[in-house]
Specification:
Elements: E1 2-5, E2 15-21, E3 28-29, E4 34-40, E5 43-48, E6 53-58, E7 65-67, E8 71-76, H1 78-83, H2 117-122, H3 155-164, H4 180-188, H5 207-218, E9 234-235, H6 246-251, E10 260-261, H7 276-288, E11 293-301, H8 303-320, H9 327-340, E12 346-349, E13 352-355, E14 361-363, E15 365-367, E16 370-372, E17 375-376, H10 384-399, E18 403-404, E19 413-416, E20 436-452, E21 455-471, H11 477-492
Parallel strand pairs: 5-18, 14-19, 19-20
Antiparallel strand pairs: 1-8, 2-4, 2-7, 3-6, 4-5, 6-8, 9-10, 11-21, 12-13, 14-17, 15-16, 20-21
Helix pairs in contact: 3-5, 9-10, 9-11
Length: 501
């Protein structure tokens, strides 16, 4: 059996949270096919399968936080299947007789407690349970929601739950997440997901949720009504109804821009729990602010840059199908400065400054409830048009939550276009372990003094502020000012001869 482990999802990332399993036990998985989504350091990333075969067991449930290199799943490869061709079918082997290391009939349930009567009974199922989510060792699973035999269910549950399950109100979500073992527990008691209020992460149904409903019905009561939500309700700008799916619940966990917060009657304050993205941002910013920051600010006359873009943008839009941004011009100018001052294209380590040969540019992208910094790699090898396409592509995937593992981690320098939102002066925080970050502020027309042969004149020019934040352990103010001056000169030198392609 091949073990799937939690990958390293960034140089400073030590763990990841299982967001969603894209495959279930018994499914065939191709090599490099997306296997699961992992949430870490502000990003939802699809993790490809390192093996081809049948997913036999999920070892880390959705919502669980797992350390790097920890085992999260087991895949049966073709070599495993060939080697076990002479073994008896799973339906012919009792779990007690299974040799050590042989896959069990059902995946482990992380919610199960030792000595639980229901779990103990479930472990004694025969060929009927071999067709459950875990499947058998010989064939892929075939869903057969047949009613379980009476002997397989504790007598109290058989008479209390199955007979009265129809009386339980529909208070849950039909597509709520749960582990395969919890799903089987629902079937054993004749319940459906709609009759259970999930209290796990993102509305996930746990074993405790099911057993609570079972016990309530068994003792003659009714299924419990939904508990007060742990997350306060957040009203959308249009006043839409409360979230009805786990995905909507996650989206409502933190207020997006323009939304309002509903305060319960009589309450003066409401706690807004952090989403996984905000936890990642908080952790990264805390690490970053341990770095001694220093700042250099310069004004850039972007008159020629604005003219060059205006001349090229319509033809570029028609040719490429996307608009031409100012960001690739700034990246090109930054690349020139990084070549001249390579100590800014580096990572800080306890042993000293780790200079980088390749230039991987982090590009800050604002999303609904946070900030992502995907990476465009080897930017010094790309034209302005190539940079523009790469930035548009990675930004679109960041906002759609479709970033790949290669889209983040390993950046050596970061550009932040805070001017997109109209800012004129920002004090950016370094994306550690990088040693510098550069902001481009809003382009605004200002009255500036210019020298002419006839003397000084006041002219109206499009101007842009730029702020360079540096790690003062790696570089000093003099080097930072020299670096930013190269960027300024390169941008002011843009003209009709500047190559877009």
């Amino acid at each position: 059996m091949a073990k799937v482990t939690m990958p390293q999802l960034g140089e400073s990332v030590a763990e990841g949270t299982i967001g969603k399993w894209l495959k279930q036990p018994g499914d065939h998985v191709a090599k490099y096919e997306p296997l699961l989504e992992v949430i870490t350091d502000k990003v939802n990333a699809e993790v490809p399968s390192p093996f081809e075969g049948i997913l036999k067991e999920i070892l880390a449930e959705e919502g669980a936080t797992v350390a790097n290199d920890a085992e999260i799943a087991i895949i049966e490869t073709a070599d495993d299947a060939g080697g076990g061709a002479t073994a008896p079918m799973a339906s012919e082997v009792s779990p007690e007789a299974s040799p050590e290391g042989m896959p069990t009939l059902e995946p482990r349930d992380p919610d199960a407690a030792a000595g639980d009567d229901t779990a103990a009974t479930a472990s004694q199922t025969t060929s009927e349970s071999a067709r459950g989510p875990a499947g058998s060792d010989e064939t892929a699973p075939t869903p057969q929601p047949a009613a379980p035999a009476e002997a397989e269910v504790p007598p109290a549950a058989a008479t209390g739950t199955t007979a009265m399950a129809s009386s339980a109100p529909s208070v849950g979500v039909a597509d709520a997440r749960m582990t395969p073992a919890v799903r089987r527990l629902l079937r054993e008691h004749g319940l459906t997901a709609e009759q259970i209020v999930g209290t796990g992460g993102s509305g996930r149904i746990t074993r405790d949720d099911v057993t609570a409903v079972v016990e309530t019905i068994r003792t003659g009561g009714t299924a419990p009504a939904p508990a007060a939500p742990a997350t306060p309700p957040v009203a959308t700008p249009t006043g839409a109804a409360a979230a009805s799916t786990p995905a909507q619940a996650r989206a409502a966990a933190a207020p997006a821009a323009g939304t309002t917060i509903q305060f319960p009657e009589g309450a003066d304050e409401v706690l807004l729990p952090m989403t996984q993205m905000r936890k990642g941002i908080a952790a990264q910013m805390t690490r970053s602010l341990q770095v001694p920051h220093a700042y250099v600010h310069m004004e850039v006359d972007v008159t020629n840059l604005v003219r060059a873009r205006e001349r090229a943008k319509r033809e570029y839009q028609a040719r490429e199908g996307i608009s031409l941004s100012y960001v690739p011009f700034v990246i090109k100018a930054s690349v020139e400065a990084l070549h001249r001052y390579p100590t800014f294209n580096a990572h800080w380590t306890d042993a000293g400054l780790m200079a980088k040969r390749r230039i991987h540019m982090g590009v800050a992208v604002a999303v609904d409830d946070g900030l992502l910094v995907p990476v465009v790699r080897d930017v010094d090898q790309l034209s302005i048009s190539g940079l523009n396409r790469a930035i548009a592509d990675v930004a679109a995937r960041a906002r759609a939550g479709k970033l790949k593992l290669d889209d983040y981690g390993g950046s050596t320098f970061t550009i932040d276009n805070t001017g997109w939102f109209g800012s004129n002066l920002t004090m950016p925080i370094i994306n550690v372990p990088e040693v510098a970050i550069l902001t481009m502020e809003a382009i605004t027309k200002r009255a500036v003094v210019r020298e002419t042969p006839d003397g000084d004149v006041i002219a109206i020019r499009p101007m842009m502020n730029m702020v360079l934040a540096i790690d003062h352990r790696a570089n000093d103010g003099a080097q930072a000012a020299a670096f930013l001056k190269v960027v300024k000169q390169a941008l002011e030198a843009v003209g009709p001869d500047t190559q877009i392609y």
